[in-house]
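lol forgot to send this yesterday, sorry. struct tokens for the thing we talked abt
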């Protein structure tokens, strides 16, 4: 029988998990700790093995290390939770999937990408990976979901009255983040959660990934620098100088790349890739990534900010709000099979978010906190669209969209630009 939690909130990813179990012998759900991977997996499992169970001096982990195959015995789909603590489990699942190609046998979950030493096979064709994020506003119930991302590409947007959210509520959404355990908690409790989360990553989890001791102070300063540069294109040189200026600590490029890699492997940060029109042009298309914390609450924790600080510094909160919107747009895009990018070229033409559908159509999205910024955003969208069409001679965006933080309605402007509040959006 399936495991049930009466308080479980449906996740957008549930549909993809179900679909993949009908296609592949095994799936692996990866993502940050406490994002809900285990409960989403239990919701579709018939048996479970918790590798990280600390009871009896971590007996489950010891058993898995001694005999991986015995761990895999049980009703299917069988959940193997935190498999990365015993990497040989991957090969065991792959081997069984080679012998028995029936679908939906195993669900693996992991909150870190382990070192590849000891893993003999990629699992291609046998184990499908699914990336899970923290909850979107639609999943937490804070978006009324009156407008779907897919419908923006397919239908004309009619004027739609949406819920109204004030600045304090928006700030709270970013402080709380999308952590299931934070739902209903106070601002202070949510701030403590995020601070503790980063402390745990730096003081414990980073060492546990590969057993290498790293300078915790430099890691903290790097996290602070990344938070200061949330939603921006920032070079390694800038990060190195930032760490030096913050704490008078030196860090070289090799060490920086190592630290960035370990933060990605632990699903603390992620990269928003650059969009390329794939056309000839004398203008250099930027290839640098934007780095984001996997949840806006971690950027706030990295800054050491509070609600009052963010309310009194709307420039900083504007970047945090963009982080929230990127986070949600990525979840919605992933669920419809779309890819998400940013765009910036050598002449500083830029788009906050580019979403490209599987059929090649793409949309340009600008993210603005205040209504007074919508006109400016619309002009920028048209400037970039005209450049693509008239100069690059390629297809321009199918839709131009401003994601708003203060509007209480979704509508189409006279110039054709769509305006959509983030708290009215769903997949």
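and heres what i got for the seq, position by position
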């Amino acid at each position: 029988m399936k495991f049930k939690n009466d308080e479980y909130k449906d996740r957008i990813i549930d549909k993809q998990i179900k679909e993949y179990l009908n296609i592949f012998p095994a799936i692996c759900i990866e993502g940050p700790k406490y994002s809900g991977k285990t409960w989403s997996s239990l919701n579709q499992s018939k048996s479970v093995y918790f590798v990280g169970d600390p009871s009896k001096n971590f007996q489950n982990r010891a058993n898995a290390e001694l005999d991986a195959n015995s761990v895999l015995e049980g009703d299917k789909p069988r959940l193997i939770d935190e498999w990365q603590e015993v990497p040989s489990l991957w090969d065991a699942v792959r081997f069984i999937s080679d012998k028995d190609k029936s679908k939906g046998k195993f669900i693996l979950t992991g909150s870190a990408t382990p070192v590849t030493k000891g893993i003999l096979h990629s699992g291609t064709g046998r184990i499908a990976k699914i990336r899970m994020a923290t909850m979107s506003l639609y999943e937490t119930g804070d978006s009324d979901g009156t407008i779907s991302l897919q419908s923006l590409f397919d239908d004309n947007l009619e004027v739609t009255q949406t819920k109204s959210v004030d600045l304090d509520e928006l700030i709270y959404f970013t402080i709380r983040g999308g952590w299931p355990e934070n739902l209903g908690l106070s601002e202070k409790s949510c701030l403590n959660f995020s601070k503790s989360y980063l402390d745990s990553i730096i003081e414990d989890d980073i060492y546990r990934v590969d057993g290498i001791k790293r300078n915790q102070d430099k890691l903290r300063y790097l996290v602070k620098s990344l938070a200061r540069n949330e939603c921006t294109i920032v070079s390694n040189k800038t990060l190195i100088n930032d760490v030096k200026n913050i704490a008078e600590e030196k860090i070289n490029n090799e060490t920086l790349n190592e630290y960035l890699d370990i933060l990605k492997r632990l699903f603390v940060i992620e990269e928003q890739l650059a969009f390329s029109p794939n056309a000839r042009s004398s203008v250099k298309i930027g290839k640098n990534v934007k780095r984001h914390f996997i949840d806006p609450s971690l950027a706030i924790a990295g800054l050491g900010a509070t609600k009052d600080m963010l309310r009194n510094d709307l420039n900083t909160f504007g970047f945090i709000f963009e982080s929230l919107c990127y986070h949600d747009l990525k979840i919605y895009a992933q669920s419809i099979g779309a890819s998400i990018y940013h765009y910036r070229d050598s002449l500083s033409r830029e788009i906050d978010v580019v979403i490209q559908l599987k059929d090649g159509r793409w949309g340009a999205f600008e993210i603005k906190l205040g209504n007074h910024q919508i006109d400016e955003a619309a002009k920028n969208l048209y400037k970039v669209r005209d450049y693509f069409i008239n100069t690059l001679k390629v297809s321009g965006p199918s839709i131009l969209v401003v994601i708003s933080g203060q509007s209480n309605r979704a509508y189409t402007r006279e110039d054709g630009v769509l305006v959509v509040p983030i708290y009215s959006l769903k997949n």
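The mean pLDDT is 90. anyway ping me if u want another try
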